[in-house]
Amino acid sequence: MPVPFTNSIETFAVEFSHNIDHRMPGSMKAVDGISVSIAKGEFVAILGRNGSGKTTLARMLNALLLPTGGSVCIHGIDTLDESLIWKVRGLVGMIFQDPDSQIVGTTVEEDVAFGPENLGLEPGEIRRRVQEALHSVAMSQHAHTTPHLLSGGEKQKVSLAGILAMQPDCIILDEATALLDPAGRKEVIGLVRTLNRDKRITVLHITHDMEEARLADRVILLDAGKVVLDGRPSEVFSNSPAIKMAGLELPQIAELFDLLNQEGFDLPDCAMNMDEALAALIKVMNRCREQHVHLH
Amino acid sequence: MSICIENLSHVYLPGTPFERVALSNITFDVETGTCIGIAGQTASGKSTLVQHLNGLLKPTSGRITVNGVNTATGNLAELRKQVGIVFQYPEQQLFGESVYKDIAFGLSNIGMGEPEIGIRVLEALCAVGLGEDLLDASPFSLSGGQKRRVAIAGILVMRPSVLILDEPSAGLDPQGRREILDFIGRLHRRLGITILLASHCMDDIVRLADRVVVLKQGEVAMQGNTRELLRNLEALESTGMTAPPITSFMNRMKKELPELNGCLLTVEEARDELKRVWKTLRKENYSC
After folding, report:
1. By CA distance, what is A278's nearest residue in B?
2. DSSP A224
3. Which pLDDT value is given to residue A24?
4. How confident is the model over A141-153, as a mean pLDDT?
5. Do A281 and B284 make contact, defined as CB atoms within 8 angstroms?
6. Helical H segments across chain B, by residue range
7. pLDDT digits (tens), chain B, 288 positions
8. Could you tell me which of B179, B194, B106, B187 has the C-alpha nearest to residue B147?
9. B89 in reach of chain A (CB within 8 A)
10. Domains along chain B?
11. B92 vs B201: CA distance, rounded Å
């Protein structure tokens, strides 16, 4: 009987150290005891400075790396179970930072077909999936284009299509927007958000961009291989000391609210989108004005 | 005038089926000792423009002079001593077995002798804010931000009078980014060199540049004083650039609160301006 799993991803005190064979006393663990559960359909941003363990954690989630302590379960499958490793990689697709280092095909179509071909699907099925995937990322018109003629954002969309064609349960973006210009970023994030909403694909978005993290359902902040904060963006970004301790910066508007509150403004610290923030600040500023009118 | 660009156009692979106009009719000047931002989306022509400034690419038409030297006809060796270019991901160009050897490479290439090289390397290392203890380390053992600074030191060691940086903060984490921008700002103030900063990120440009040229599809879409340019957010956004979130936010705030002054570029400026208006409102209040 198949067991219905509500969690896409679960980690249990997972650890990873490089060069485990000659582990020196006090050698740093890249990931040091992380336990998180990520539900199907969640959109999670993972934040942390360079070297905080983001990428190592991500690579353990599709069994590119295997834990040196604890365990990782994808849909209930332990990644240490070698017989099911291809199943895990089919469930969790990963997009990397550099658009140029992950494209193998000589045409867009061929590149997208690479994954399904490796799954050993029927040619007709492969063709159907490639068309559908290119359609989902709005790249159908480029099916026969050579990938190196595309912009960075377009290349990332091709990589995304390559993963969609494998019909994954979860997509991990490992700083996949870091090298794109603002328009490219907006496009890729918008697309991923839509896939997340319409197809209930779980998304883990590793980023340095606080403005992007703000758009997630949940933010997990890592530092020195451990989870420092885990919660809704408004909760996480209201903890400015922890964010700064972890070597990151607040989104600009949260930073402004933090500074204004130090000056005695009485602003909520959970206003995260621009409209909410605007309304809150206007309310505080108008309070003075209204009192002024009353006194007259 | 440090850099003069007149009607610069560049066409890649002219006369072939792959012919592409990368730059058309670019004209602007950069005054000595100022910092100018070159903004634009991917494929807007920033990198093509940058490679013209030390003669790596030659204009298809138009002309460029840097400190009076024409980049197409002048002495290239001299030009390249004057103009230092820090390319995208400069850390990928590191190759020396030690930080010292990597930084010294340019100087030994022009035949400089040892005691002088040593002095210059230390000076460059100090300019990028790294300690002498790193000199013997392998550049590959350093963090991303440190590597990038070593690569920049390898350019500064040539004592260029014009420093060109192509996306200096791309791919760094927030701390690394802040550090690199702060040190470019210090460098600019202390050494008084002319800086040209090419970036798709307006946040970086507003921190450093007094003037901006915005490129779109190889043409100058906008140019002027950074603050003035950011007053017209719609025009800026039509070029594919995004204003810093704080600028957009304060712009919308100003519509609700006309007492607010001007165009604000940083969180600190926004705080000071809001505080000022808040205090005025409260003072009026108390005075009743």
Report:
1. B253
2. T
3. 54
4. 85
5. no
6. 46-52, 76-82, 99-109, 114-127, 144-156, 174-191, 202-208, 226-229, 233-237, 245-256, 267-287
7. 789 999 999 999 888 887 889 999 999 999 999 999 999 987 789 989 999 999 999 999 999 999 999 999 999 988 998 999 998 888 888 888 999 999 999 998 888 888 899 999 999 998 888 888 889 988 888 877 788 889 999 999 999 999 999 989 887 888 888 888 988 998 898 888 999 999 988 989 999 999 999 999 999 999 999 999 998 899 999 998 889 989 999 999 988 888 888 788 999 999 999 999 888 887 776 654
8. B179
9. no
10. 3-239 (3.40.50.300), 244-288 (no CATH)
11. 21
Closest chain B residue to A258, measured at CA: B271
Contacts of A50 in chain B (CB under 8 A): 143-145, 172-173, 176
Neighbours of B250 (CB within 10 A): 27
Using the beta-carbon criterion (under 8 Å), do B257 and A282 form an inter-chain contact? yes
Q: Are A129 and A167 in contact (CB under 8 A)?
A: yes
Q: Which of B241, B245, B281 sits opposite A253 (nearest CB)?
A: B245
A256: contact with B, CB 8 A cutoff: yes
Question: Is B174's Cβ below 8 Å from some Cβ in A?
Answer: yes
Measured between beta carbons, the chain A residues lying within 8 angstroms of B270 are 256
Domains along the sequence of chain A with CATH: 7-250 (3.40.50.300), 251-296 (no CATH)
**Residue B142 and residue B179: Cα distance in Å, rounded?**
15
Answer whether A158's CB lies under 8 Å from A108's CB.
Answer: yes
pLDDT tens per residue across span A6-53: 678 989 889 998 765 555 555 578 899 999 999 999 999 999 988 888
Q: What is the pLDDT of residue B48?
A: 92
In whole angstroms, how far apart are CA B59 and each of B7, B18, B46, B52? 9, 18, 14, 7
- To which residue do tokens 């156009």 refer? B9
Burial class (CB in 10 A: 0-12, 13-18, 19+), A41: middle
Q: What is the DSSP string of A47-67?
A: E--TTSSHHHHHHHHTTSS--
pLDDT tens by residue, B195-218: 999 998 898 999 999 999 999 999
Instruction: Output the six-digit token pair for B228.
Output: 């003035």
Residue B69 has what pLDDT?
92
Task: Indicate the burial class of A268 (C-beta count within 10 angstroms; 0-12, 13-18, 19 or more).
Answer: middle
B20 part of contact set with chain A, CB < 8 Å: no
Q: Which residue in this structure is represented by tokens 């469930």?
A: A91
> Quick one: average pLDDT of A243-267?
88
- Judge contact between A31 and A66, C-beta under 8 A: no
**Residue A250 structure tokens:** 């607040």
| Chain B residue numbers touching A259 (CB-CB < 8 A) | 267-268, 271
CA distance A113 to chain B (A): 27
Question: Contact B172/A179 with Cβ under 8 angstroms?
Answer: no
User: Sign of the C-alpha dihedral, residues A185, A190, A195, A201?
Assistant: positive
Residue with the two structure tokens 């003069």: B4
Write the residue in B200, B271, B284 that is nearest to A181 by C-beta: B200
CA of B100 vs chain A CAs: smallest distance (Å): 25
Contact A182, B242 (CB under 8 A): yes
